[in-house]
């Protein structure tokens, strides 16, 4: 946590200085600040990432199985009930 | 994994919630297969089998209704009107001061806002139902299919259809709220997730049959990589440290703890993508309504059709720009730095090295503006994956492993599993996520 302390960011918002610099310099500054902030982002660890990915894939597979099972039953059921038998 | 699932079902509380959710999902899927009154079911099935739907717009809406739209079933509208209504009510807070007041009022105001959302849902449902019924009547729903979808189009039957579809919208809305209240996960997102998942087997089968197993394996691999990427970004956050001052309340010391405000890299979630796609669907809809009786198009519509749909570079550029814009817009609406700073000040909290009050709000705004740009670029990238990569192998725009569906999939999956996990940990089990 200590290394992400806000105080370590170089001087936080200083728009007064920004206003004097040119347009492209402003953009360059913005991107440098963006990268500085991105460095402070806490990313999931490798094991967390693998775990969450597997959980999501498992959850999707499970829901897919359940829904296609339900769809198979209901789909065939509705064809039986609603289709006009003389047309088949 | 399997023992964990067994443990889930041994927890009586959780078992009841899961079974309740499953029951709601089952009811939802039944409704998708029951045709609306007045619809000739066998004709619809034959038209569907012929497989010439009129493209873009419907495919997008059809994806979110789980195939119900093109079947003209009683749940044809799906959960989409409810989602649109809640987004609109959230956006209206910027325009209408009364909505902002209600939002700040807390519990009671929130209840009023929910009530407004419900009315708006019914209104939107009515509008969309009317559109769908008129399309089905005129035969424009299935281009090139001459069988009548609605054989007897007297006024009474048409009215009955519109009322049924609107009632279906209301019922789905209620079911979604029931799941949020008594089941697991957020009902609205879970139902949209179910709708999307129901389309997977068909599109997978389509790839296998048209492209063979090798392409299918490759697509699956890309899909898993994209899922991992989305999980990675969804779990990334910038933690802004907050220190709470120690104070004496009576004889006890309160506070003195240090915590953090988590700012997610992608704070807006999937909403900017949904918004951008529905905005871009508007020109396609205009084209639909301007088809001349002999099937040709006016010049401008032809231009729109070639340049503002599918895979044209112009379309992709506009899409990406809109996503960038809506990400910033939505983050600005949902996260109010001044409000957070004021709250912190009231409870004696501060960010180390920054004064309480306005400087804190400015600092939060500074971080937010810089952290949102990569988030927005990532959103645009994920949304464009199906357009760029999968067009080559002939998969359609709503391919399962790209864009909106994958973002919704991961978001809902993580949220639901985390909620189940929290419930298990309450009972001292180790949970699903080790």
From TrEMBL, chain A:
Sorted UniProt keywords: Cell membrane, Membrane, Protein transport, Translocation, Transmembrane, Transmembrane helix, Transport
Membrane-protein topology: Single-pass membrane protein
Compartment(s): Cell membrane; Membrane
Transmembrane parts of this sequence: 49-70
Keyword check for Endoplasmic reticulum: no
UniProt cross-references to InterPro entries, sorted A to Z: SecE_bac, SecE_sf, Translocase_SecE/Sec61-g
Coiled-coil ranges (or none): none
Gene Ontology biological-process entries: intracellular protein transmembrane transport; protein secretion; protein targeting; protein transport by the Sec complex
GO molecular function: protein transmembrane transporter activity
Gene3D superfamilies xrefs: Preprotein translocase secy subunit
Any Gene Ontology CC annotation: plasma membrane
Subunit comment: Component of the Sec protein translocase complex. Heterotrimer consisting of SecY, SecE and SecG subunits. The heterotrimers can form oligomers, although 1 heterotrimer is thought to be able to translocate proteins. Interacts with the ribosome. Interacts with SecDF, and other proteins may be involved. Interacts with SecA.
HAMAP family per record: SecE
Protein family: Belongs to the SecE/SEC61-gamma family.
Role of this protein: Essential subunit of the Sec protein translocation channel SecYEG. Clamps together the 2 halves of SecY. May contact the channel plug during translocation.
Annotated protein name in UniProt: Protein translocase subunit SecE
Naturally occurring in which organism (per UniProt): Zafaria cholistanensis
Automatic annotation (TrEMBL), chain B:
Keyword field: Cell membrane, Membrane, Protein transport, Translocation, Transmembrane, Transmembrane helix, Transport
Subcellular location: Cell membrane; Membrane
Membrane-spanning ranges: 18-36, 68-95, 116-135, 155-176, 188-208, 214-233, 314-335, 375-393, 399-417
Signal sequence interval, chain numbering: none
Superkingdom per UniProt: Bacteria
Principal subcellular localisation of the protein: membrane
Database matches in Pfam families: SecY
GO cellular component: plasma membrane
Topological type in the membrane: Multi-pass membrane protein
Subunit structure, as described in the record: Component of the Sec protein translocase complex. Heterotrimer consisting of SecY, SecE and SecG subunits. The heterotrimers can form oligomers, although 1 heterotrimer is thought to be able to translocate proteins. Interacts with the ribosome. Interacts with SecDF, and other proteins may be involved. Interacts with SecA.
PANTHER family: SECY/SEC61-ALPHA FAMILY MEMBER
Family the entry assigns: Belongs to the SecY/SEC61-alpha family.
Its biological purpose: The central subunit of the protein translocation channel SecYEG. Consists of two halves formed by TMs 1-5 and 6-10. These two domains form a lateral gate at the front which open onto the bilayer between TMs 2 and 7, and are clamped together by SecE at the back. The channel is closed by both a pore ring composed of hydrophobic SecY resides and a short helix (helix 2A) on the extracellular side of the membrane which forms a plug. The plug probably moves laterally to allow the channel to open. The ring and the pore may move independently.
UniProt protein name: Protein translocase subunit SecY
Species of provenance: Zafaria cholistanensis
Encoding gene per record: secY
């Amino acid at each position: 946590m200590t290394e992400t302390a806000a105080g370590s960011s170089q001087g936080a918002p200083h728009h007064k200085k920004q206003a004097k610099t040119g347009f492209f310099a402003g953009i360059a500054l913005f991107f440098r600040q963006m990268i500085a902030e991105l460095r402070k982002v806490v990313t999931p660890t490798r094991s967390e990432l693998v775990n969450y990915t597997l959980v999501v894939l498992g959850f999707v597979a499970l829901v897919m199985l359940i829904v296609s099972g339900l769809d198979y039953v209901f789909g065939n059921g509705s064809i039986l009930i609603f289709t006009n038998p003389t047309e088949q | 994994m399997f023992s964990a699932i067994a443990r889930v079902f041994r927890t009586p509380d959780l078992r009841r919630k899961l079974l309740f959710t499953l029951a709601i999902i089952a009811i939802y899927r039944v409704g998708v297969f029951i045709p609306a009154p007045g619809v000739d079911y066998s004709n619809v099935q034959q038209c569907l089998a012929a497989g010439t739907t009129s493209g873009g717009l419907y495919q997008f809406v059809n994806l979110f209704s789980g195939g119900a739209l093109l079947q003209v079933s009683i749940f044809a509208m799906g959960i989409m009107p409810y989602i649109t209504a809640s987004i609109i009510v959230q956006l209206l807070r910027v325009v209408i001061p009364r909505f902002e007041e209600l939002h700040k009022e807390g519990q009671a105001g929130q209840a009023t806002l929910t009530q407004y959302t419900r009315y708006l849902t019914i209104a939107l449902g009515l509008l969309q139902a009317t559109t769908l019924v008129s399309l089905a009547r005129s035969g424009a729903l299935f281009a090139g299919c001459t069988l009548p979808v609605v054989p007897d189009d007297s006024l009474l039957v048409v009215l009955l259809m519109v009322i049924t579809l609107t009632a279906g919208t209301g019922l789905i809305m209620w079911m979604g709220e029931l799941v949020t209240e008594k089941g697991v996960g957020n009902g609205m997102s879970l139902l949209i997730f179910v709708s999307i998942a129901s389309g997977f087997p068909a599109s997978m089968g389509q790839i296998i049959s048209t492209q063979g197993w090798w392409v299918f394996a490759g697509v699956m691999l890309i899909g898993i990589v994209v899922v991992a990427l989305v999980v990675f970004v969804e779990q990334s956050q910038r933690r802004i440290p907050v220190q709470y001052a120690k104070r004496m309340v009576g004889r006890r010391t309160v506070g003195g703890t240090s915590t953090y405000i988590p700012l997610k890299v992608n704070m807006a979630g999937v909403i900017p993508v949904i918004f951008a796609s529905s905005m871009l669907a508007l020109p396609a809809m205009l084209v639909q309504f301007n088809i001349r009786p002999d099937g040709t198009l006016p010049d401008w519509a032809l231009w729109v059709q070639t340049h503002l749909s599918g895979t044209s570079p112009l379309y992709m550029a506009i899409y990406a720009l809109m996503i960038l814009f809506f990400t910033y817009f939505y983050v600005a609406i949902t996260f109010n730095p001044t409000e957070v700073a004021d709250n912190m000040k009231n409870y004696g909290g501060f960010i180390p090295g920054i004064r309480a009050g306005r400087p804190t709000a400015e600092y939060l705004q500074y971080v937010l503006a810089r952290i949102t740009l990569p988030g927005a670029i990532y959103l645009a990238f994920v949304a464009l994956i199906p357009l760029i990569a999968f067009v080559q192998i002939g998969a359609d725009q709503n391919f399962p492993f790209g864009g909106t569906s994958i973002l919704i999939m991961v978001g809902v999956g993580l949220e639901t599993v985390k909620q189940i996990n929290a419930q298990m940990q309450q009972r001292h089990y180790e949970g699903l996520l080790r």
